[in-house]
Amino acid sequence: MTATAPPTPVELMTVAGSRLLRDGRVVFAGVGAPLEASVLAKRLHAPALTIVLEGGSIGPRMLPGMLPVSTNEMRAAHDASMLTSINDLFLYGQRGHYDYGFIGAGQLDRFGNVNTSYIGDPDDPKVRLPGSGGANDIVSSCREIFIMTRHEPRRFVERVDFVTSPGYLSGPEARRTAGLVRSRPVAVVTDLALLGFDEETGRLRLDALQPGVREEQVRANTGFELLVSETIGELPPPTDQELSELRWLRDGNRDTSQTREVTSAP
Amino acid sequence: MTSAADKRVTLADAAALVRDGDTVVAGGCCYSRTPWAMLTELLRAGRRDLTLCRNLMSYEAELFLTTGAARKLIASWVGIGLRWGIPKVFREYVERDPQIYEEWSHLSFGMRLMAASMGMPFLPTASLLGSDLLERTPAQHIRCPFTDELLVAVPALVPDVAVIHVHRVDAEGNAQVEGPVYMDVEYARAATTVIVTAEEVVPSETIVRHADRTVIPGFVVDAVVEVPFGAYPHECHGRYEADFAHFDTYTEMVNGGGVDGVQAYVREYVEEPGSFAGFLDLIGASALLEQRRRALELVG
Q1: Where does B11-118+157-237 sit in CATH, by number?
Q2: Backbone φ, ψ for residue A184 (5° rounding)
Q3: Predicted local confidence at residue A3, as pLDDT
Q4: Chain A to chain B, count of Cβ pairs less than 8 Å apart?
Q5: Does A133 touch chain B (CB under 8 A)?
Q6: What pLDDT does B82 receive?
Q7: Which of A47, A121, A180, B257 holds its CA 20 to 30 A away from the CA of B120?
Q8: Which of residues 55-94 of B touch A (CB under 8 A)?
Q9: Is the pLDDT reported for residue B1 higher than 70?
Q10: Residue among A87, A164, A180 whose CB faces B133 most closely
Q11: B126 touches chain A (CB under 8 A)
Q12: CATH number of A9-251
């Protein structure tokens, strides 16, 4: 067995994200790291996880080295159990069939509100971002919401400039009053930490650190005051198996010293 | 047996069904099954001031903005594809005038077309609640008259024209697709005029044999155009993969030249080839066949 290279920040985050997904559930995954985390989970500890993707793909089994760049393309539909319309795909969620919603974030704040629309004043924006896509719909309807993003001060801001995809807004009462009763923000996974939400205030709370990361590092990269769990855990480092599987999925090159596998990843 | 209506026309004839200022919805999603041949025909025909609508837009958005073909976009996402980052020229346009872009979430956009497709003036949804998107669209809060649940009502969007690219269609317009249907069915039902382009126009017998695969009935279709590779450089499920190298070419032109880069792209890949067939000639048979091979490898 060859030595496995240490994990990159994105790999740390992706592996930690994959571990949040339980077997037998349904996850609506956004493109990029959330999708990779979902495919990895299905490959390793959650073989009965159903992945659903925005373009209408239900239960796809993506090819290693050919993960989709957009959730609408052919690669995202590979070996799916069902290909349906986009409205149908979302409406299963609105009906309450999706356990997890897993999205990325351009900018997010202490209440887990996500902005992928405007940096600055929306009437006179500094930067126009690509927009919601399905993220707003995912956080409005999927039962448990996970968010995955790099941990940087420019991303973790006191208050987002624009709420594209609501978290707790300004707290649990605000969320209820807004009519957001079908879903609940649960965790934010980053390359530095695993964050949860305080149920009383709806504020982000530091629950566990990525291996080797110090609490001060998390604070320095967070643009607001984080709540801190009474006992901060440390996430177990990615195993060699998690890393080699993830790398195989991403680049399609199987380490020849490993056992031979089927060509199609579940 | 009486013969069915024959709606086959050329791309140029189909383009004449679109008038300046129309609201046009384009089928597919992002860089999948985009009616590229028809959209670029609208550019060649010099259409102006359209409102271009699409669930997720790829770089057709920038071609339409910089040529003046569109003055407004309605969508839930505008980019190229995740790998190519924030679209530079779209940014520039919206940062100058945020009014040119009406932003929805994917489902709330879809429910607008769904409402129109059902002949209803609105539909309720659980999306947009609590978000700032709600404040910047015509969407309204609504209470369910039966349960009092707080929801969002989105207004029907009835496009003047829907342009949709499919795998096969007969002369009457009965259309079949392979792979995901995206929002094409809702678009076709919702729009006043429907233009269908297809990889192949087939005899009615071929459609009849697998009528359960027909997703758009001929009676809603106004024009049928046979355009092999009609979504290229975007993908068509099972027929050809998207040409990412071509996306890179576009991105390089835009990163170097901004609006001028987009206009140079339009000159080189839309206007100068003179027709969609001319564009495909420019791409070349070997590149097209390579993309076809890759698609067959994935789906075959």
Answers
A1: 3.40.1080.10
A2: -150, 125
A3: 62
A4: 183
A5: yes
A6: 76
A7: A180
A8: 55-56, 75-79, 81-83, 86-87, 90-91, 94
A9: no
A10: A164
A11: yes
A12: 3.40.1080.10
pLDDT of residue A56: 97
Q: Do A72 and B107 touch (CB under 8 A)?
A: no
Q: Write out residues in chain A with pLDDT < 70, as ranges.
A: 1-3, 255-266
C-alpha B289/C-alpha A239 separation (Å) is 42
Q: Does B12 touch chain A (CB under 8 A)?
A: no
Q: Give the separation between CA A75 and CA B292, rounded to whole angstroms.
A: 14
Q: Where are the domains of chain A?
A: 9-251
Residues of A designated catalytic: 54
Asked whether the beta carbons of residue B131 and residue A166 sit closer than 8 angstroms, the reply is yes
| DSSP-derived secondary structure letter, B135 | G
Beta bridge partners of A51: A27
Instruction: For residue A57, give the chain B residue with the closest CA.
Output: B180
Is residue B266 within 8 Å of B67, Cβ to Cβ?
A: yes
Q: For residues B266-282, give the mean pLDDT.
A: 98
Give pLDDT tens digits for B218-271: 999 999 999 999 999 999 999 999 999 999 999 999 999 999 999 999 999 999
pLDDT digits (tens, 9 = 90+) for A133-164: 999 999 999 999 999 999 999 999 999 999 99
Query: For the whole model, what pTM was predicted?
Result: 0.96
Measured between alpha carbons, how far is B273 from B271 in angstroms, rounded to an integer?
Answer: 6
From the list B103, B107, B180, which residue is nearest A137 (CB)? B107
A31 to B82: CB separation less than 8 angstroms, yes or no: yes
The total of other beta-carbon atoms located within 10 Å of residue B205's CB is 8
Give span(s): CATH 3.40.1080.10, chain B: 11-118+157-237
The two structure tokens encoding residue A45: 């500890």
B296 touches chain A (CB under 8 A): no
* Per-residue model confidence (pLDDT) at position B3: 67
**Confidence band for B299, pLDDT divided at 50, 70 and 90:** confident
